[in-house]
Amino acid sequence: GLSQYSSDPRTEWDLSAYSSRDQVLEAVRNLRYKGGNTFTGLALTHVLEQNLKPDAGARLEAEKLVILLTDGKSQDDANLAAQTLKNLGIEIFAIGVKNADEAELKQVASEPLELTVYNVLDFPLLSSLVGRLTKVLCTRIKEKSNKENAGSTVKDIPVNMGPQLSPTDLKISAVTSKSMHLTWSPPLRPPKKYRIVYYPSKGGNPKEVVLDGAVSSLQLSNLTSHTEYLVSVFPIYDTVVGDGLRGVTSTLPLSSPRSLRVSELSHNSIRLSWKAAQGATQYLVLCSAAPDGAED
């Protein structure tokens, strides 16, 4: 399976999409590169929630590996999302290109780091990793499979986490031109933390807030006026991420001055007055002569 990400992760194809090597190679050849930001934490959460589920082709008995390829430093918390995957027994290999942050790659990747972290100076050099990475991946799968056959327990992603691990009833209230208030009902089993992600629906950098699991409300501030926002609330447990709550709402437009009046006219001056715009700190007044034939 393969997903691309910037500020909005996108599944290119699921694990169940192709059944032969040639089909996969053809899909890679037809892949269009997605440029943009580097929200690696959001991408890893997308992989867990969307790509590693049975309905996307993930087999519960199969070993689960994630290969992260990035050319920059993450603009959100990649470590928290990566730790959630690793706690579920999912192995992460991190490959950096160009401006990737090696310290971050080592945080995200599984142990032992000498087998799971790679860094090259430019994209063409990725081909030099293929042989070694292929051997390492196959060896790791065999090792983990042998442990399972010997009786070790392997953690699987729950097929249906249900209301026990998922919050409900997201309400968005007290919406202004630059803020809104979120509340939700906590799941039956309180999470360790909540991860709240919000961003403009028409494009923009996602922002995130991490809250203690005992809290079930949040005030979002410093928003852009007259803008539709997508909001997601994810419960984070020690070994799993619960199903997220999602909502959409728009901030109010900035208030306008009203009731413009003209008085005290003379041959070279006029006085203007208006009802104040709530929250305005200054006004810009523009004046120009009406064109010939138009009403002054």
From TrEMBL:
Q: Which residues form the VWFA domain?
A: 1-133
As for subcellular location, the record says: Secreted, Extracellular space, Extracellular matrix
Q: What is this protein called?
A: COKA1 protein
What the entry lists under InterPro entries is as follows: ECM_Assembly_Org, FN3_dom, FN3_sf, Ig-like_fold, VWF_A, vWFA_dom_sf
What keywords are assigned to this protein? Extracellular matrix, Secreted
SUPFAM superfamilies per UniProt: Fibronectin type III, vWA-like
CDD domains, alphabetized: FN3
Every copy of the Fibronectin type-III domain together lies at: 166-255
What is the organism lineage in this UniProt record? Answer: Eukaryota, Metazoa, Chordata, Craniata, Vertebrata
